């Protein structure tokens, strides 16, 4: 997921996306622990996507406070 796509989202969409990514991260961790994880790189991608969503959420909140 690209930062541009995330910036176009509303705050509600961002929170929904964050919940979705956290659920996926949980499932990936569970699969890794049980030895069923096929794509190990996906764990890292999801972690970075979560960071992107959180960063942009904070940026939007900061801009809203300034305005």
Automatic annotation (TrEMBL):
InterPro entries: Ribosomal_protein_uL29, Ribosomal_uL29, Ribosomal_uL29_CS, Ribosomal_uL29_sf. The keyword Ribosomal protein applies. Pfam families: Ribosomal_L29 (PF00831). GO terms for biological process: translation. Keywords: Ribonucleoprotein, Ribosomal protein. It comes from the Bacteria. Coiled coil: none annotated. One of its GO terms (molecular function) is structural constituent of ribosome. SUPFAM superfamilies: Ribosomal protein L29 (L29p) (SSF46561). One of its GO terms (cellular component) is cytosolic large ribosomal subunit. Belongs to the universal ribosomal protein uL29 family. NCBIfam families: L29. This is Large ribosomal subunit protein uL29. It comes from Methyloligella halotolerans. The gene is rpmC.
